[in-house]
Amino acid sequence: MYCTQAQMVERFGEQLVIQLTDRDHAGEINEAVLAAAMADAAAEIDMYLAGRYTLPLSSVPLTLTRLACILTRDVLATGSDVSDERWSKQADDARKLLREIAGGKVSLGVDALAQGAASGDGAQMESAGRIWGRDDSKGYL
Question: What is this structure's pTM?
């Protein structure tokens, strides 16, 4: 995930996040609805970044958090009665920026090759040595 519930509330206010997620009219944030929208936004961002960066990123640049919040709000607002034309424009601008990042016109400020989850569980190749070679002292020629 590129953003959290707390970041959504910080950016847009709790009341708006409630309005966008409260499908049962309980008067509170529906965490499941919000999590699904954040996952959709993250998948969309990954789609743009996958060709240029190793995913998942080891750290999330602030720009991606902002874009994820905007796209999450767009996912939640689509088809709802809580919507604003400015939000659609911001989401379009966010996607434009993601296309520019994917095309290499704009950098996230992270090293594309060095990114990725830091883990030691990757595949490792090891050889037992060469069997064939130019050295005919072993009689392999």
Answer: 0.77
